[in-house]
Amino acid sequence: MKKLLEMNHVKKSFDGNEVLKDISLSVEEGEVVSIIGPSGSGKSTLLRCATLLETMNSGDLIYLGEKAAEDVDGKTIYAKTNDLKKIQQYFGLVFQNFNLFPHYSVIKNITDAPIHVQKRNKEEVYDEAIKLLDKMGLTDRADYYPCQLSGGQQQRVSIARALAMNPKILFFDEPTSALDPELTGEILKVIKELAKEKMTMVIVTHEMNFAKDVSNRMIFMDQGVIVEETTPKQMFQSTNQRTKEFLGQYH
Ligand code: ADP
Ligand code: MG
């Protein structure tokens, strides 16, 4: 199996408050990894460090063997801007609150970065965007603006936008937390479909049944550390006290 992402001994503090305490993980091609854990345990910070939205204090960040950042004497040194730009194309991120550009139509939200950041052929990008919209069940919404769509539709647009960059890994940070239960299902269905197609994904979620269903591996985080990392089956049979207490809330 090819390793797509490696994070080694990652530490991150905010004003002296250590939020990530020596986190190491790796993700292989085709894997779906879910990250679960209580609010404030550092899940979003971990994804933000992995996706270069946040800098780490120390640790390594390696995509496909290319170092985005490496630990030099307990301090993170980031790669040069051009290398980081290349590495940024390896992943996509889907946020809890969709983060679409409100003043761009759906199609422009999807095509803007592939055309202007990746400098790809306009027509090819549009064709692909239309296919992605079809796949997301949004064929007739290309010219709508985000405010004219339901939350579920907006989230499907933001998944299409991430996929339009052809990422090797897709990260999701609580993709259904801002949605009503009836809209949550449609997003989980889309993610399950992507899993079937062997899209490599790292998903922070509170949807335990979904996580159990879709993941090859689950990571339980609490207070800035990885408490347990195992198969969904093992996770739900865990004898670890903290894991049991956390999962107990969802019964
Ligand atoms: P989770 O996603 O698991 O709920 P977060 O990664 O959002 O956890 O937050 C972990 C901790 O880091 C929390 O205590 C939060 O208040 C703190 N934190 C996160 N981002 C910042 C920030 N930009 N500045 C200061 N503290 C932050
Ligand atoms: Mg979070």
Describe the structure.
The protein is an alpha/beta fold and 251 residues long. It has a domain at 102-166. The protein has 9 helices and 11 strands. It has helices at residues 43-50, 81-88, 106-116, 122-135, 151-163, 181-196, 208-214, 232-236, 241-248; strands at residues 3-14, 17-28, 32-36, 58-63, 66-72, 75-78, 91-94, 169-173, 200-204, 217-222, 225-230. The strands form 2 sheets. It has a 6-stranded mixed beta sheet with strand order 7-8-9-3-10-11, with helices on both faces. It has a 5-stranded antiparallel beta sheet with strand order 2-1-4-5-6. Strand 10 and strand 11 form a beta hairpin. Helix 3 (106-116) packs across helix 4, helix 3 (106-116) runs parallel beside helix 5 and helix 5 packs parallel to helix 6 (181-196). The mean pLDDT is 97. Bound molecules: adenosine-5'-diphosphate and magnesium ion. Magnesium ion is lined by residues 43-44, 174. Adenosine-5'-diphosphate binds next to helix 1.
